[in-house]
Amino acid sequence: MTVQQPVHDNSLSDKPKEYCGVFGIYAPTEQVAKLAYFGLFALQHRGQESAGIATFDEGKIRCHKDMGLVSHVFSEEKLQELQGSWAVGHNRYSTTGSSHHCNAQPALEDTRLGTLALAHNGNLVNIVELKDKLLSMDGDLDFLTTTDSEMIAKAIAIYVNQGMDWTEAAIAAFKISSGAYSLVIGTPDGIIGARDPQGVRPLVIGSFTEEDGTIRYALASETCALDIIGADYVRDVEPGEMVWITESGFTATQWAEKPDKKLCVFEMIYFARPDSVVHDETLFSYRLRLGAQLAKESNIEADLVMGVPDSGIPAAIGFSRASGISFGEGLIKNRYVGRTFIQPTQHMREVGIKMKLNPLKDVLHGKRIIIVDDSIVRGTTSLKIVRALRQAGAEEVHMCISSPPVTHPCFYGIDTDSQDHLIAATKSKAEIAAQIEVDSLTYLSKEGMLEVTKEDPASFCTACFDGNYPIEIPDSIKASKLILEKTTV
User: Fold this and answer.
1) How many C-beta neighbours within 10 Å does residue 257 have?
2) Domain that residue 293 falls in
3) Which of 20, 264, 461, 464 is catalytic?
4) Beta strands 179-187 and 114-124: pairing type?
5) Does 83 reside within a domain?
6) What is the pLDDT of residues 110-155, one digit of tens each?
7) Same domain, 221 and 317
8) Domain count along the chain
């Protein structure tokens, strides 16, 4: 089945884009393709450009992948064709490699032990050096895609073809790959799950019991994908750890000698679903605390606190509770507009934000409004929202952001603009407030953001806020995005 590439209006998109979602499940008595489908469905927010599932059955691999949403790519008939005992799946938003069918995952690679299927969330930073190394190891390599994920798959294949088994080859490949990667890799013998030594991107383990009482395992980017298939969260795959899931259960190997946990803090603030569990609590609870901390750090008199749907709502509720200012819905989101096949007319583009968010005039009229959002990247959407609120009769509009200013681009799997396009990298807070036409602008402090995690502040990657990159980035890669030496905020 070929799915038409959806067209969408990027002018209404002002959020950092991660991403990808990965999923794996070992369940010989279940319809693993369907379970993988529902797991990917729960992870749809992590990537909407392509989707794919590969299944394994007695040494035979079956794979289907295409452009589009999970529900567009897979039909009941197609899932029935994907018979197997275990499966790996992937949702993609392109970070390295453009948005084309050839870059859809899982990435497949033939080896002497059979075909592997690799699903990758993250971004390598040593792709130039890695490609040269792989070509030096095998001069006949033919790269079919433009993704770093294919390089990891080819590295594993080369080591397998040199005589290593699956786990030995995987560890050897991990050790020559630098950057952020959470991987779910299907092989004819079982499933490998792994994270880079910093654990920048998440990966969790779940378990469930088959009808015969056998305990089986699943891997996913977030716990919400375990919930949907009825699996229980066991624990995270640790930074620098590899797990190997087979008929015998799962075993774990700490392959990195000096792991240094640096989970992307934006997973906490925005990327992951609010019902996903991180550090033994849902992210909804953390985002409530972000809002409460934001209220403590601000001093605004207002009549109503509202959030930008949907990601700003938990922090807005927390802000309301801490400040005593009433929470209300001021914007209604059209949840079906996300990716459309039909381009809006020029007039509708001029109206702008109302395709996605429509203000409630009777709620907003004559009110002093505090609107809470999780981030400002370029400021384009914030301006459209503020203008819509004023047109609906808001007397004052105060913008409160539940994260610090985004001043540096990401190289670890988040698609951010180059630094000169990040509004907080080029303008002061006062200049940003003037550009987005608010009465006041408040950002959460980095210290406040980290304090309310209730975890060691050093265990998070905060590079997008402070430029402290935990994994060394080659100058050739850095130069493509990082062009300013200091910020003005």
Assistant:
1) 8
2) 281-455
3) 20
4) antiparallel
5) yes
6) 999 999 999 999 999 999 999 999 999 987 888 887 789 999 999 9
7) no
8) 2
**Token pair 């209300």 is at which residue?**
328
Tokens 């792709």 correspond to 127
Q: What is the CATH number of the domain that holds 390?
A: 3.40.50.2020
- Any idea of the CA torsion for 265, 267, 271, 277, to the nearest 10 degrees? -140
Contact between 173 and 159 (Cβ < 8 Å):
yes
Residue 471 lies inside a defined structural domain of this protein: no
Catalytic site includes residue 20: yes
- Given a contact cutoff of 8 angstroms between Cβ atoms, the answer to whether 308 and 14 are in contact is no
Q: Are residues 438 and 293 in the same domain?
A: yes
Q: What is the 3-state secondary structure (H, E, C) of the chain?
A: CCCCCCECCHHHCCCCEECEEEEEEECCCCCHHHHHHHHHHHCHHHCCCEEEEEEEECCEEEEEEEECCHHHHCCHHHHHHCCCCEEEEEEECCCCCCCCHHHCCCEEEEECCEEEEEEEEEEECCHHHHHHHHHHHCCCCCCCCCCHHHHHHHHHHHHHHCCCCHHHHHHHHHHCCCEEEEEEEEECCEEEEEECCCCCCCCEEEEEECCCCCEEEEEECCCHHHHHCCCEEEEECCCCEEEEEECCEEEEEECCCCCCCCEEHHHHHHHCCCCCEECCEEHHHHHHHHHHHHHHHCCCCCCEEEECCCCCHHHHHHHHHHHCCCECCCEEECCCCCCECCCCCHHHHHHHHHHCEEECHHHHCCCEEEEEECCCCCCHHHHHHHHHHHHCCCCEEEEEECCCCCCCCCCCCEECCCHHHCHHHHCCHHHHHHHCCCCEEEECCHHHHHHCCCCCHHHEECHHHHCCCCCCCCHHHHCCCCCCCCCCC
Residue 446 lies in a domain: yes
Report pLDDT digits (tens) over 236-271: 999 999 999 999 999 999 999 999 999 999 999 999
Q: Which pTM was predicted?
A: 0.91
Tell me the C-alpha distance between 208 and 191, whole Å.
16
Q: Is the peptide bond before 197 cis (omega within 30 degrees of 0)?
A: no
